[in-house]
Design brief:
By secondary structure, this protein is of the alpha/beta class. It is built from 14 helices and 17 strands. The chain has two domains: 106 residues, Aspartate Aminotransferase, domain 1 (Alpha-Beta Complex); 257 residues, Aspartate Aminotransferase, domain 2. A hairpin with an 8-residue loop joins strand 13 and strand 14.
């Protein structure tokens, strides 16, 4: 294994001489002195390795660790089989970069190919990529795929995660795409409001199900509404929920996107994120990022290559459909190992347990006087409650007991989440603390 060999003063001087200068200061002559830093940076002195370890341990002790978590809102705590980390952290995968040279990258390429296949099976789509940074980026790329030929507006449900909508506002403004938000009614997308939007320039309708408020959307009718308007239908989905819900493909959507953190990603400081994308075959050439294809070599042996590369920025530069460059293969590999380890049965059982625990939690909370469900729409593992009293004191009381409660959406509403990691005993404890706080 190669070690780190720092450059010596003689090495640095030799490099400067090869450039025809005597000092690093000479390299800065094109920069006006008025804008250069005239004094040292105000940084603490350097520490030795042992001292750094002690300092990091000291800082780590300041973190708050919860025994139970009942908060989601886009990042979710799920059980991760040990095999996921064992395989995903193998040296050949951790150190791998973008596999441009197929002849020396067969293992990484096959891993990406298997991931793409699993995402297609999960979403009911025909093609998938493996290089989108997170769910918000995937949504933005999907909207860009749909725009063009006079279709310059994107309709986005207000049920889409607010962080995703913020990314869409930024991205659409830069891409010259107008963004129109479709309001909610009863916690779900108001189809009539979308159908009442004037003009024939809508490129797509983007909806999330389960949506940010936890409600399950009527996906079939929303896809029909988009197509009736001459637009494409884009679904943002929770991959775990697809263990029991209909796939975007079955509902008639053209593109499926989502956040893949739940597929084996840890929750440490937000967890590693993975935006997944899949589409129907007619849109495949517009799909951004890496796409791996299976082929055969001259001897008839199976092999893997990057395919449809003419879409990519390293081939077409400014004419490319996307500027995605860095490879997301490691997070994709993690998701592929997770899905393989769980299998269809395991994924379904996980989804069923999430559903069971969430409804058990909702049932326990609404038994507390002053707490009620905010919406009647069906939900998966998240839901919103309305509170007669402010929710902040309740969340503080839960935190003192080592429980991370729901996310306050307003002074009197909260978004709760339960997964297979929660237990009935934890739920009973939450309900008891809520009852005590509401007295």
């Amino acid at each position: 294994m190669a070690g780190y060999v720092p450059g010596t003063p003689d090495d640095r001087q030799a490099m400067l001489e090869s450039l025809g200068v005597r000092s690093v200061e000479d390299l800065l002559t094109p920069i006006p002195r008025a804008v250069r830093l005239a004094e040292p940076l105000h940084l603490p002195p350097g520490l030795g390795e042992a001292e750094v370890r002690d300092r990091i341990a000291e800082l780590a002790e300041r973190n708050t660790r919860y025994d139970a978590v009942f908060r989601g809102a886009g990042a979710y705590r799920h059980f991760i089989p040990a095999v996921v980390r064992s395989l995903a952290t193998r040296e050949e995968f951790v150190t791998a970069y973008t596999p441009y040279q197929a002849e020396i990258s067969q293992g990484v390429l096959q891993a990406i190919f298997e991931y793409q296949t699993l995402i297609c099976e999960l979403t009911g789509m025909d093609a998938a990529n493996a290089s989108v940074y997170d769910g918000a980026a995937a949504a933005m790329e999907a909207v860009r795929m749909c725009a063009g030929r006079g279709r310059v507006r994107a309709a986005v449900s207000e049920g889409v995660h607010p962080h995703v909508r913020q990314v869409l506002r930024t991205g659409c403004a830069a891409a010259g795409i107008a963004l129109a938000e479709v309001p909610l009614s009863g916690g779900v997308t108001d189809r009539a409001a979308f159908e009442g939007m004037p003009g024939d320039d809508i490129a797509c309708l983007l909806v999330q199900s389960p949506n940010y408020l936890g409600c399950i959307e009527d996906m079939d009718t929303l896809a029909d509404a988009a197509h009736t308007a001459g637009a494409l239908a884009v679904a943002s989905v929770n991959p775990i929920a697809l263990g029991i819900l209909s796939t975007p493909g079955e509902a008639g959507f053209d593109i499926a996107v989502g956040e893949g953190q739940a597929l084996g990603g840890s929750m440490s400081f937000g967890g590693p994120y993975l935006g997944f994308m899949a589409c129907r075959q007619p849109l495949m050439r517009k799909l951004p990022g890496r796409i791996v294809g299976q082929t055969t070599d001259s001897a008839g042996r199976r092999g893997y290559v990057l395919t449809l590369q003419a879409r990519e920025q390293h081939i077409r530069r400014e004419k490319a459909g996307s500027n995605i460059c860095s490879n997301e293969a490691h997070n994709a590999l993690t998701a592929a190992v997770y899905l393989t380890a769980m299998g269809p049965r395991g994924l379904r059982e996980t989804a069923e347990r999430c559903l069971l625990r969430a409804h058990e939690l909702a049932g326990a909370l609404i038994q507390v006087p002053g707490i009620a469900l905010a919406f009647d729409a069906p939900f998966f593992h998240e839901f919103v409650t309305r509170h007669e009293r402010p929710v902040a004191p309740l969340m503080a009381a839960l935190s003192r007991k080592g429980i991370l409660g729901g996310l306050p959406l307003s002074e009197h509403t909260a978004l709760w989440c339960a997964t297979e990691m929660n237990t009935s005993a934890q739920i009973e404890r939450v309900a008891a603390i809520a009852a005590e706080a509401n007295r």
